[in-house]
Design goal:
- The chain is mostly helical.
- The protein has a single domain, classed as Growth Hormone, Chain: A.
- Strands 1-2 form a two-stranded antiparallel ribbon.
- α3 packs antiparallel against α15 and α6 runs antiparallel to α7.
- The protein is globular.
- The N terminus is likely disordered.
């Protein structure tokens, strides 16, 4: 059969749109869980009334993350057992169950429980959620370079993963504000809990579909080598020597510090400044549209160079959020229009990076193999995932402290003072701008695989094989 490859005795179909769509569905599952995380700060400060306790506990659970993520990644790399299809698919199937359970535990609605019980619920739910998110997400990212070695195919998978993330975020972002907030813009915690259960189940079936449809075409030689003694410390050293992996990780941290760190501030902005929290979902969905617009052009645009494309996107985001900071965004329709336009432009830039970000990570794995002679998908993706989650966890904690300093009081829910609401307007813009600048730093300065280097690396790896 034309363009059909063989592995062992099994015929493997050529790469096609089915691969891209199934890979995208995997990120739909991740994003259902991700959307829940964006609700945590509001749920635990306004409904469960933990306030600054929430910030302190976030730091505690991130310490647990710091220990668990590299261990899980190294465990996956060290696993040399033979599986019927692929070890990454097995880990994803197992992790998707725990991810749904951890997400539900994180939103158990007991606002009148003693403080200690609330703290135990939060810590247990968050730790379970984070551990199983790593068990799912590390293999998911590690699969990309195994589905195809072709740079254009990898760019397509990365772009479609971004489409999956957008779709997975769109549905809860658009629908949840109409379901979980009352007419006074206050959160209804019991509805959040049931939403968490539904989204966990939907995420589970998304992963089941993705793992069932995935075809592995690349089988690196390192998978068949005799098992060696696992050295987490050495693997971490190799990660930090892997300049492109560090660069794309810094860029992702900048993006998530802004998006996840600012999620609570954005909610308060719409609750108390624009006085229309239901509109927040519509506005955020509109801001995601540029990613869908850009995705069909990725395979052509990537010919310009993946790094070059990502740096251009970061520059666009910096411009957009600088405008958000200085434009007259007033608490009326005109001000909201300016806000939406800035978000559209900013998300176009972020979307350009997002569509190629996972292809950049796949190239970083190849770079590590090229420079070190060792291929370690698990540890590289687990450390990348850890720093992403670090920004997603510490970001909201630090921003909540900033919000509190600026006068935010969780018990007031959607009825913050006008002065506090105005401060949230500038805080949101500043967070987005700083995040974009960090993203630009990681891509333009640290990440070092430009178009010329990529060609050189791929040629050297082919000759080595």
């Amino acid at each position: 059969m034309k363009n059909t490859r063989q592995h062992g005795e099994k015929e493997i179909r050529p790469f096609g749109i089915r691969d891209s769509i199934s890979y995208a569905v995997g990120d739909i599952g991740c994003s259902f869980s991700f959307a829940l995380k964006n609700l945590m700060a509001i749920f635990w400060t306004q409904y469960m009334e933990l306030d600054l306790w929430y910030s302190a506990l976030l730091i505690v659970v991130q310490i647990a993350d710091a220990i668990a993520d590299p261990l899980i990644g190294s465990m996956i790399d060290a696993d040399r057992r033979e599986y019927r299809r692929n070890k990454f698919l097995v880990y994803m199937g197992f992790g998707s169950v725990g991810l749904a359970v951890g997400g539900a535990i994180s939103f158990i609605p007991v606002p009148n429980a003693p403080l200690l019980i609330k703290m135990l619920i939060f810590v247990s739910g968050y730790v379970i959620w984070n551990a199983f998110y790593t068990i799912v997400n590390v293999p998911y990212g590690s699969l990309l370079p195994l589905i195809s070695a072709d740079p254009a195919d990898r760019a397509s998978l990365s772009a479609w993963r971004s489409v999956g993330a957008v779709i997975g975020n769109m549905l809860p972002t658009l629908l949840l504000p109409f379901i979980i907030y009352n007419e006074e813009n206050d959160l209804m915690g019991k509805r959040v809990f049931f939403a968490a259960i539904v989204m966990g189940v939907l995420g589970y079936f998304s992963f089941r579909y993705m793992t069932g449809m995935t075809v592995i075409r690349e089988h690196p030689a390192i998978v068949t080598e005799p098992r060696k003694r696992m050295s987490i410390l050495m693997a971490m050293k190799r990660f930090f020597r892997n300049r492109p992996a560090v660069g794309v990780t810094i860029a992702a941290m900048g993006m998530f510090l802004a998006v996840n760190g600012g999620a609570a501030a954005v909610t308060v902005l719409f609750q108390s400044y624009f006085d229309n929290v239901a509109a927040s979902g519509i506005v955020q969905v509109m801001a995601m549209l540029p990613i869908l617009f850009f995705t069909p052009f990725v395979r052509r645009a990537v010919k310009l160079g993946k790094k070059e494309l990502a740096v251009f996107g970061a520059l666009v985001s910096v411009l957009a959020y600088a405008l958000m900071l200085v434009l007259p965004i007033t608490p009326d329709g005109k001000g909201m229009l300016f806000y939406v336009l800035c978000q559209l432009l900013g998300n176009l830039g972020t979307g350009i990076f997002g569509t190629v970000s996972w292809a950049l990570m796949a190239d970083s794995i190849d770079y590590g193999e090229w420079k070190e002679g060792v291929r370690e998908e698990g540890i590289i993706f687990s450390l990348h995932s850890f720093f992403r989650k670090l920004s997603q966890g510490l970001g909201p904690a630090l921003v909540l402290v900033m919000m509190t300093v600026l006068g935010y009081v969780g018990e007031r829910g959607g009825s913050q003072t006008d002065a506090v609401a105005l401060r949230m307007r500038y805080l949101v813009a500043a967070l987005y701008l700083v995040g974009s600048l960090i993203q630009l730093l990681g891509l333009a300065v640290v990440y070092n695989i430009n178009k010329k280097t990529l060609t050189q690396m791929n040629t050297a790896r082919r000759e080595r094989k």
